[in-house]
TrEMBL record:
<dbReference type="InterPro" id="IPR036259">
    <property type="entry name" value="MFS_trans_sf"/>
</dbReference>
<keyword id="KW-1133">Transmembrane helix</keyword>
<keyword id="KW-0812">Transmembrane</keyword>
<feature type="transmembrane region" description="Helical">
    <location>
        <begin position="123"/>
        <end position="140"/>
    </location>
</feature>
<feature type="transmembrane region" description="Helical">
    <location>
        <begin position="67"/>
        <end position="87"/>
    </location>
</feature>
<feature type="transmembrane region" description="Helical">
    <location>
        <begin position="40"/>
        <end position="61"/>
    </location>
</feature>
<keyword id="KW-0472">Membrane</keyword>
<protein>
    <submittedName>
        <fullName>Uncharacterized protein</fullName>
    </submittedName>
</protein>
<feature type="transmembrane region" description="Helical">
    <location>
        <begin position="146"/>
        <end position="169"/>
    </location>
</feature>
Length: 198
């Protein structure tokens, strides 16, 4: 087993020098930047769709308690704040022309990476707490209509989902984002080096 680990370490330490032209790297980077933009637009659209759906709940259900309206309001406000943050990150990436100014776009990518790090770390906990408060207010009235077993099940499923999103899902998203943005930054650093050599 020790030989396998040594072979694996040797293999991972071995770097193959792949020479790509700046145009080929730029083409690859363009595809990845477009994918990043598309993913951002899909996230924003999903957040806006959830705002619309949550806003329609009071139209179809007549709440008796102010807490339900407060819960819906807090939830909508929280989602809108994060939609604005996501939109600002999208604008940051989309307004920079990476084909004409790779160095400037590289700086933009580094700012974007920092923003995403902040979003998934400190701001994420604000988001989770605010959504939790909104859900607690919303469920205060709703739970009265269910039997005790259903109340417990609904609370456990909600808590389980939030714990899952805050731990496993969040870590997977952070790791994937870090890898994608890191590779993109690396490509633009190589592109910048090749442009500077010319």
């Amino acid at each position: 087993m020790q030989e396998f680990d040594q072979l694996k370490a040797l293999w991972q330490g071995h770097e193959v020098e792949v020479k790509l032209t700046a145009d080929e790297m730029l083409r690859q980077a363009k595809k990845e930047v477009n994918s990043l933009k598309t993913r951002s637009v899909m996230n924003i659209a999903g957040m806006l769709a959830s705002v619309v759906i949550i806003a329609l709940i009071p139209a179809f259900y007549d709440f008796q308690s102010w807490t339900s309206y407060a819960g819906v309001g807090i939830t909508i406000f929280t989602i809108l704040i994060f939609t604005v943050i996501l939109f600002n990150d999208y604008r940051l990436i989309s307004r920079s022309n990476y084909t004409q100014h790779p160095n400037r776009f590289l700086d933009t990518l580094k700012v974007y990476q920092l923003n995403r790090f902040r979003l998934y770390n400190s701001l994420y906990w604000f988001y989770t707490v605010a959504l939790s408060v909104g859900i607690v207010f919303y469920l205060y009235e709703i739970l009265d209509y269910f039997p005790l077993v259903m109340q417990a099940a609904l609370i456990l499923v909600t808590l389980g989902w939030m714990v899952f999103c805050s731990t496993i899902l969040r870590k997977a998203v952070i790791r994937r984002e870090r890898e994608r943005i890191g590779l993109l930054i690396e490509k633009f650093e190589r592109i910048s080096e090749q442009f500077n050599e010319k």
